[in-house]
Amino acid sequence: MQIKILRSETNTYQEYRLPAGEIPLLSALVYIKEAQDATLTFSAGCRASVCGTCAVRVNGREELACSYKVKPGDVIEPLQYHSVLRDLKVDKDKAKGTLKKATTWLQKFQEAPLTPEDEKRTEKQTDCILCNACYSACPVFAVNPDFLGPFALTRAYRYSKDKREGNAKTIIDNIQSNGVWDCTLCGECTAVCPKGIDPKMDITMLRGTSLQHGHQDPSFASQNFGGPDFGGGGFGFDPNAGF
Amino acid sequence: MIDVLVIGSGGAGLSAALAAKEAGASVLVIGKMYPTNSQTSMAQGGMNAALGNVDEDHISLHIQDTIKSAHGLCDEDMVRQMCGDAPKTIEWLESIGVPFSRLDNSKEGIATISQRQMGGASAKRACYAQDYTGLKILHTLYDTCLKEGIDFMDEHYLLNLIVPEDTVKGATFLDIRTGEVKQIDAKSIVMATGGYGSIYHGFTTNMYGATGDGIATVLRAGGAVSDMEFIQFHPTALKHSCILVSESARGEGGYLVNEAGERFIDELKPRDEVARAIFAQMKEAQRVFLDVRHLGEEKLMELLPQEVELCKLHEHVDPASELIPIKPVAHYSMGGIDVDYALEVNGIKGCFAAGECSNAKVHGANRLGGNSLLEITAFGRFAGENAYKHSIYASSKPADDAQLQKDQKEIEAIFSKESSVNFYSSREALGNLFYEKVGIVRENGQLNEALQEVIAMQVSQQQMGISDKNKTNNQNLIEFLEFKNALLLAPTIISAAIARDESRGAHYKVGFEEENEDFKKHFVLQWKD
Ligand SMILES: Cc1cc2nc3c(=O)[nH]c(=O)nc-3n(C[C@H](O)[C@H](O)[C@H](O)COP(=O)(O)OP(=O)(O)OC[C@H]3O[C@@H](n4cnc5c(N)ncnc54)[C@H](O)[C@@H]3O)c2cc1C
Ligand code: SF4
Ligand code: SF4
Ligand code: FES
Is-above-0.80 flag for pTM? Predict the structure, then answer.
């Protein structure tokens, strides 16, 4: 069987031949590196779908290399919207920076009675392995590289819904700009998440919570309170000033 | 100059970093991957603490169970400290938001954390978060590190420690992205680089890269390592992929059966006994299976969702209706960097070690399931605190660049060397050799053969090199360096196994099937010039 892999040095698709049989893509990549071409570069760790290292794109869709079974003719590429370091290996620093911007941590601990139902409320969200698949699938990054993105918002949801969180408002405040309102609710993130997480739903819920905390949809706000046409903010050149 | 340099960003490293920072140190964490990619993410079953939330339980029972499983090779004071610190450590994890599974008992705080039984435990003692315990602890630690503004340098590979006059002054690293060799000066160092299970390449539950780099580095720098022969085999790894099916599957009532459908061992015995019982079945050409069908689909999805998925994916079986084919493989390394009561490395002042890379003498000859996540968090914090204390009095005069220059030359030499032996084949051969001859059941003749073969491999290492000559993001180079570390540790494991003419815990030797009082001791290895 043959597969094609995008090589960064030449920016072309290189064909590799694999023995027939059903194997995980990661095993195929390891096989190529060990036996055919040691320069092929990719990242991997656990090989058990839990460390989040090995996400790539297969035929245009995000997959964990360790859990995707290779098929003849597959085309393998690195994740989108990450700078490619080499071949399938990408730089995930920027995506991780969004966690910091969104302040996705427990802000202020408070003791709380917790039940299995409380645990269930964010069980899925805490399954996130930070594989970055959702970030690669999200179309907003094509137009706004500063968008906080699906996994950071899912994580914000996780902490904001935790009964031990004594200051959920801070998290909500920190995901307003380039955050919950910039998502188009297209659901691409949900479609590719290997852990069955639904960032789109989390973002929808966060919008609701944002409203409760007194925030507004900024696009809605700007329609009412003057866009650039009216020279709104009172600073700079005002076309209506009558020079 | 940094006060505390933490090398390794798994659970032990992040716990150390947080404690050092809390104490007032400036902290930098360096690792060869991103923190959340660490092996800690793979821990499924749980973390021990005698909370007594489900059954009656006491710290003294936790201590007793741990000592019993260690077969006389632990330090009882260290065990006492670890088990005694456990409830407090869970409380700390609770305070940073770890999403533990809960009981419906209308209590508050950690009294609501659910607990399950693991092998060798006399009570339901393991706190868990479904079967993603390690993942959820690791990610919460990471989030907290971001909160505390801890600095990270990811994708930096530890090359060597800088140790003039027996005191650590820093370390050298290969920046994986640029290929540049760097020196980082520090007043104290915490080693948290994980275990060496991946020497059993192809026969281990561990991730690629669990090659004992930190342990090999300490050995090269004049520090001591100990108990290297004690390698724990996990009874239930998926037969074809070696992916772990957590012990909690048996803890929750799963059976082990052979082809004839017969149970042949009490599934809740410690891992060494269960692994040997399975191995004995395999020797009789029996295939062995884990049977969890009677637990029912709903309970399986509730307790072991990850394993159900992995079985379907890698073994093509549905555990709710089919038997799971399994075999025992290398899982945990009890031995490692030899440390004292402060977790300071014997032989290197100012250098501390915590987690799987360290031998704090709490697991002895056999580790109990759930005690490793406890060790990495409790002792990770302890190491961080002690490293900070050391840094207060340590000199801030940086070391010269002798080691840096040496390592730069060495990396250049690897690039310029022609390779005639493919080290990937040798890596696989080493894994096979270890599983066959340094495995679950050992025998002196085979161990000696293994030692000869390893020495031959070390000789032929001269002909090994890399075929990828690109300076940047060279994974081929990293894997070669990892293999060299594995090969450096290989003889320490085999020679200690040869010297230990007895059977104790995970070390079982034909012809010497009993424990021998003369060997109730640690084998400590150190290079002296
Ligand atoms: C499949 C599996 C399941 C397990 N389940 C359980 C369980 O249920 N309960 C339990 O208690 N224990 C369990 N364990 C054991 C436990 O997970 C590990 O012992 C523990 O996580 C080790 O943590 P650590 O921080 O010491 O090392 P690791 O998490 O392995 O981290 C090591 C760090 O060091 C870095 N590093 C290594 N070498 C270098 C180098 N040369 N340069 C720079 N950085 C380097 C790595 O990148 C990594 O960040 C399990 C282990 C496995 C493999
Ligand atoms: S939400 Fe899903 S796709 Fe996104 S990083 Fe987490 S696990 Fe990966
Ligand atoms: S739903 Fe929102 S976050 Fe998810 S991919 Fe679409 S735009 Fe991105
Ligand atoms: S290798 Fe860990 S998720 Fe694929």
Answer: yes
